Model the fold of this input.
Amino acid sequence: MTKPVLLTGASGALGRRLAQGLAAGGRRLVLTDIAPFPDPLPEGARFERADLEDGVALLRLAEGCGAILHFGGVSVERPFEEVMGPNIRGLFHVYEAARREGARVVFASSNHAIGFHERPAGGGPRLDARCHFRPDGFYGLAKAYGELMGRLYWDKHGVENVNLRIGSSFPEPVDARMLSTWLSYADLLRLVARCLDAPRVGHAVIWGASANPAAWWGADHRDRIGWAPQDTAEAFRDQVGRLTSGNPVAERYQGGGFCAQGYSRAEPSPRDPFA
Done:
């Protein structure tokens, strides 16, 4: 892809890593965030502060771009009103800009769109990317909405999009849950690069996790982009394998602590037919 790439959320933890890595690979980048960019500007990149709720600004920033990496918005569980603006209205602005430019969207979705699926016991079957959405909060609900937005814009307007259901992307795993969900920064960078370079993707969903033997997630559309993770959380098992939250709700469901936030129902029994 020779056209510039627009990266929203460029000042965030993952955005900064992507800005550095993609620029080092020769990509021309247009960076934007509501917060200032905290690092020296990568070579071949320009940065402009903008609010995702400003649709005109998004249209202007996307002019001439061949892809939009949408990593902006609220990145943790927050009240609905705080999530709605940047994560729902802002997403609409991103897709409208992509539609006008004929650009591909790479959307930073999340495992929290499916967080209320139970963790498989004893090596049980892994979730297929076609599984039902089961968001674990307003943040996860917005991510499910984002994936559905991509489905709509592909079906109705032919806007190609890849939805990355990112697990836990940190320098290294910090607890036992991340032995299943961890995505290394290097694997993330390789994943995004393949999303940009693949000839055709249609509407795709890919689990954003490294090659973790304890992974909860299985079949997806990674064959469309030719990506396979190279790192693994297993190397950290001895140091984090016993670090759990101690919360029965967090430890039962794949979304972990997001599921436990504000949880008010009686905990279902293991044989609850409606779980």
